[in-house]
Amino acid sequence: MLKQIVVLNAGDLEHFISTFHEAAAARSLTTENIDTKDCLITIGHNEDNKAVSVIYNNLPLVTKDTGFVFRRTNQDTYRTYLIATILSKQAPAYIDNANLLSDKTADKMTIGVLLPLSGIQVPKSILLTNHSYKVNQQFLSTHLTFPSVIKKTGSKGKQVWKVNTLAELEEKLGTDDNLTLIQEYIENDYDLRVFVLDGKVIAAVRRSSADGFYNNLSQGGQGEKAEISEQERDICIKAAEIAQLRLAGVDLVRSPRGPLVFEVNKAPQMDIFNPFVGFDLEKTYSVAVLDDLMRDSK
C-alpha cells in the first residue's frame, strides 16, 4: 500500500513541490524531495538482499510502500538514468521515458548496474561521485574495503587502478564530479575474455597478468586459448544482450561465488587475440557483417 512519495530532482521547482505536497497530503501520503547528486549506488553490499540499491543520506532508499517521481533535468542526467532504471524495477515510479534513455548503454558504469538487475553476478561495487562520496561518509566507512579497484571511463585497462588505502582512493577519485566505480578486488591468476557475436560465443582467451594486476594484453598480459563452461557461455551471451551489443568482449573471472563479470567491452580489440584463438577474429566479424547486409538487401 502506497504511503509515501519521493520526488527526485525537483529542488528548484518550488511551486510544483508545494502543489504536489498538498495533493499528496489530501490522499494521506507523505512526500520527500531529494536530488540524485546526493545519491550513490551499491551492488552486492545490501542487507535487504537487493542486488542493487540506491543510498541517500547514508541509508538505502526505502522502496516498500513508496512511489518515486522523477523530474527531467539537464544536470546529472547519467546518474538520473541509472537511478531511474534501478528504482523503476523495485517500486512504482512516474518517469518520462527520456530518463530511461542513455547514450552509454554499454558503458562500464551502466553495465555494472544492469547486469545484477538481470541476475548476473558482478564484483561488489559502489558507484559514486566526489560529491556523493562526501555526503555518504557514514555508509562508506562501513562498506569500503581494501584493496579495491577504481574504474573511470576508459579502455584497454586505462583509467583502472588498484588502491590499497583510503588516501589512494581519494587521490584517484579526484576533485571532479564524474562517476567513479569502486569494485572489490578479486584476487586471481587469470581472467577470461569471451567474444560474443550475434548471440554466439566465437572465442575465449585466458589472460594472465604480467604485473599481478592488469590482465589486459594491451598492458602486457599473456594469453592462451580457453575452454568455458555452458554456464559461462550463457552468462556472456546474456551480458552482451543486456548491453545491446552484437559484438562484445565479455571479461569474467572464476571465483568461489561463481563466474563474475568484470566488464562488457563495446569495442573489443580483436587482432591481438588472433594468435591465441587460431583464426582471424576480424575476418569472422567482417563475414558476419557482410552476410547480414546481404540478407537484409534481398
From TrEMBL:
One of its GO terms (molecular function) is metal ion binding. The keyword Signal does not apply. GO terms for cellular component: cytoplasm. GO terms for biological process: SOS response. It comes from the Bacteria. Pfam families: RimK. The keyword ATP-binding applies. Residues 112-290 form the ATP-grasp domain. Keywords: ATP-binding, Nucleotide-binding. This is ATP-grasp domain-containing protein. It comes from Candidatus Kaiserbacteria bacterium RIFCSPHIGHO2_01_FULL_46_22.
